[in-house]
Known about the structure:
The complex is a heterodimer.
Chain A: H1 12-21, H2 28-31, H3 36-45, H4 49-81, H5 92-111, H6 116-134, H7 152-174, H8 179-201, H9 206-233, H10 237-263, H11 270-282
Chain B: H1 3-27, H2 31-44
Amino acid sequence: MMTPLTHYRKPKQFISNKLQRYSPRGLLIYFLPMALIPATIIALGKGNLLGIIVNASGFALYVFAAWCLRKGLQAETIYAQSPIVRAPKLPLKKLAAIITALATGLIAWLGARQSFPVALMFAGGAFLGMYLSYGFDLRQEKKIADAQGYSGDEILRMLEESSQIIRKIEQANDKIRNTELNQRIENICAIADRILAEIESDPRDFRRARKFLNVYLDGARQVTEGYAKTHQQTQSGQLEQNFRNVLETIETVFQEQHQKLLEEDVFDLDVKIEVLTTQLKREGIL
Amino acid sequence: MSRLLRQFLGFILLVATVGLATCQSMVKAEPAAGVEAVLPAKVSK
């Protein structure tokens, strides 16, 4: 009997990566210098050394510029989507614009044999074209207000670390071949993401959620990575059941934590965290 | 300036500069064509 399609795990992360990778933005810079390929071949056939060097290096520069541009556009998408990502470190889009301008000036001057001032105008036009088409990189850091003795930077750093832990859990989940467990882990990650978004929108929640970020999230990562590693070596029903129990507890506690944040309840979840830690130790996972 | 107009202008500029420079470079990659163009003029003198 065939498993209904709805029982299969939805590859959320995979789809979003593919969308970014296959977005057509920035591909123009790969296509526009295509004429340099026959130009290099013609120069090669005619033994025109300068032509070979200029056209081939110009093409390489354009390809590098296009690669930088696409990476910059991807980083920008991630920055715009996630509330807790810092601005990209390298100004990749600006770098792509500079390289494109340089390559265009070089090709116009040495390849197309235009005068130097005209070649400069070509370079300026290409730079302006890159700026108008794709803009430059966002350098503005996302600010989080200071709250309850914690600086905005401290909160942002903690949120970034937590976000990375969630991504690690998702990576470990990809290695687990069990639809039911996959679904549970995905739910846990989704709730954790919501909790982070909640803290980001109201940093006053940070103190209450600090232990969750420190202990629980990392506990969940250790458990998932540990299970992903061991279940490939040994197929134990008991291990799977233990892991299922732990996931159930984690999911419940995550939901409660999220609910507490929504209700702005001052009650701390310390007691429940102790219970989970004890359970993780009892199940032999921590 | 609207975003669409700005992107359109950028597209035109890129096609005009990069496209023109690379195509001209392809045409001039053949030094023989240039020599042929110059030679008859020299011969006629």
